[in-house]
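Progress narrative, work stream C.
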Amino acid sequence: MTEWLGLPPLASAHGGQIDGLIGWTHVFMFILFIGWGAFFLYALVRFRRSRNPVASYATAKSPVAKYVEGGVLVLNESFVYTDGEKATRVWKIKSLGNGDYEGTAGDVVGTARGRAAGNALNWAYEIDLPIKGSTWRVHFDDWMLQQDQEVMLNKSTVTKFGVELGQVFIFFRRIPASP
């Protein structure tokens, strides 16, 4: 291996071992080069511009956004869990201007804060979550994406002390007001 690396002649008793280590280091670097090169090519194909359009960061222009900016939005969430348990959370959300929002709900500790841009809203808050007879204070980081005028998707990451406990995916559908 020392010949094809162009290393000088051995000048010590352990020179052969050192040259061997240098040789294997170069082999390992070549393997890393091939692996990272393959990953780079995969990322270029997977995340190319044609498959991932650029998001619009313009302020929302829907009639709902204009209504919300003028006052307080009341959002009633109804949950049905796989074990049959049901829960509700009523949010009172207020616009602070420039795409910033704050809100309160019964089980939220303090005030939730959020920022909207385009069809996305990032919402962060803490909740005292009942788990097996005790209560854990956990942090929620929600990303809400409005799909159209009727549907919104929400991905929530739940953490405690910065460690991710899990993720929650929620589907929101607007229910027309009954006459």
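Work stream C, second folded protein:
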Amino acid sequence: MEQLFQSVISYFLKTREFFGGILEPALPWFYGAAVLLSIFFFWGIIHFIINSGYLARMTDEYSNRFGIGDVSQLRKLRAWKKVLKRIKSADMTDWKLAILECDFLFDEILKHSGIRGADVHERFEQFPSTSVSNYERLLQAHRVRDSVANDAGFILSQEEARAVVKIYEQTFKELGLIS
């Protein structure tokens, strides 16, 4: 058994000597390539962390944990920016998502205002019509949201989607979410 062990070690040492003589002149190039690959992968990790929203989520989590700033307001503003980005898209799916996100934001405002209900419809019914000047238009926008959410084949033009988002925008401005 010991002789087998010695022969295996001897074989690996001879192999190392053989390849070491061939690869030794190229060793600085291998070091350089390893450094470049490390820089590339490090950049990829940083790029992914920033663009995935992971950093923002972690910042929000720690801010919530330590009570720093108004994190819910920051999240809503971030969500509003996402809505504006979606509504500028050329894809109808993005327009529909923008409307759904607007209604979700409005529902969050209702929840934070203390309006209770099992779902958004119950909370919307409890929302005082005198709270915003465009209550009737907001009700129409909410009906469009229902159509978008419940009918997969619902056709929506970009102009209609922009009009609905404008209604929500006016409501959010009156409620102090955006300026």
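The chain has a mean pLDDT of 83. No further action is required on this item.
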